[in-house]
Amino acid sequence: MTQSALIRRWEEELASYGKEKAAAFLLKGQRKGGLMYGDRAVCQALRPLFLARETYQILVRESQLLRSALGRLWRDFRADPAAFADLRFTAMEEELIALDAQVDHPDTFGRIDGILQKDGSVRFLEYNGESPGGLGYGDALGDLFESLPFFAKLQKEFGLTRCKMLPRVVNTYLNSWRQWCAARKVIPNRHPRVLILDLAGAPTIGEFRLFQTAFREAGCEVEIASPEDLHFNGTTLVVKGRPVDLVYRRLLSADLLVEPKMAQALLDALAADRVFCGNGFGGYFFAHKGLLAHLSDPQRRPLDLTPAELQSLASSLPWTRIAQKRARSTAPDGGGELQDLETIVLANAEQLVLKPAADYGGRDVVLGWRTEPEPWRSAWNRACEGRFIVQARIPLETLASPWQQAGEVRRGDFRFDLAPYVLGGLKVEGLGVRLSQDELLNVAAGGGSAVPAFLVG
């Protein structure tokens, strides 16, 4: 009742202020603050997501249990990589991941993408443990919505709060860097010299600048640069003539694998253990969607999962399997007798989706309920030749919201996801939110909108 009353009051205040006026205010603020993905404002919605605090607490609890279970897989992989041969890591990928073989939590911060269900439970789609984007945008959008003239009134009336993530992430990076120094018996500088690294011309440059400001507010020197700007002299990683202590890596492994030599200086510095890289390449292991298959399948999951973890996985993870022709017999979604995986997949297209196991941005996803039988069979055959997972369809709830498009304010129904953040591989805090009128919830895919989340009560 509180949330519905809050939405009703928001709509009243928005109408009183003027929807077109609010849309112009938010668009101007995004352009001024660099809240852009390329040349597109990251938020088109005219209302934040309001979430009951009790629901947020469920998300946090279930997310921590999932990350704990994923940590068991990382432990097992480090002990015996051959046990994960079905993930089909290439030799180059294994070399990258091995750079973090001694690191317990290479995912300095990560994002768990989940879907809220009608009953208040959550189903998790994937874990981006490599280098998730969007967090900085969420913080800045929260500031922007709070600056609307009528926000303070509603904030007081409904007890609205939010979790600002940029200071927390920066603090996590700095603590991880200090631990890295201590393990090597290195006396650290008071403040590290920070490099934010990605390809030149990345469309997320606006978010990099938000992180640059946050690191500077923590007392750090910060440079935004691309791989060709780096040099390793045998003892020190250097960018534009200045030494680097800490790398905030936004350069994706997928991009580096296309052209490994472009970041050779970084790889050499890491191999020599001369620089700390937050969100190290071990995060690429965590981002492999096949890990959810290992946790979803009772025949594959670690034997020492706790009762709490097992109960959480049973309710929060959708049925997931690695796409392969010669898979062992497995139980279908919901249980029952073991069957050939291909039989299950071809007979249940309406309830399944095929996803690349090690890609991002919603590329090459095939929705079974949108695909005719023969194209679905062809997609399955192609999936088995590559690296894909097959996953149970998760119902997407919708919410109605005013939004702006091409200078006009309209009203539409949006699907949405909730993405809690994992800090240091241990603690879950904060929340990212994406809206989309399509079934692929991805801002980078072109049709989505980020919005800030506010807790109610």
Overview of this structure, please?
The chain is α+β, with helices and mostly antiparallel strands and 457 residues long. The protein is 38% helix and 23% strand. It has 15 helices and 21 strands. Strands 4, 5, 17, 18, 19 and 20 form a six-stranded antiparallel beta sheet that branches. Helix 2 crosses helix 5 (135-146). It is globular, with a radius of gyration of 22 Å. The chain starts with a helix and ends with a strand.
Question: How would you describe the oligomerization state of the chains in this entry?
Answer: single chain
Give me the secondary-structure category.
alpha+beta
**Annotation field: number of helices:** 15
Rg computed from alpha carbons, rounded to a whole number of angstroms: 22 Å
What is the first-to-last residue Cα distance?
A: 12 Å
| Main β sheet profile | 6 strands, antiparallel
Task: Kindly list the characteristics that best describe this protein.
4-stranded parallel β-sheet; 457 residues; single chain; 21 strands
Give a quick summary of the entry.
This protein is α+β, with helices and mostly antiparallel strands and 457 residues long. Helices cover 38% and strands 23% of the residues. It has helices spanning 2-17, 19-33, 53-79, 91-98, 135-146, 151-158, 166-183, 205-217, 253-258, 264-271, 282-286, 290-296, 307-316, 341-347, 373-385; strands at residues 36-37, 40-41, 49-52, 109-116, 122-128, 193-197, 221-225, 230-232, 237-239, 242-244, 246-249, 276-278, 320-322, 352-356, 366-367, 388-392, 398-405, 408-423, 427-436, 448-450, 453-456.
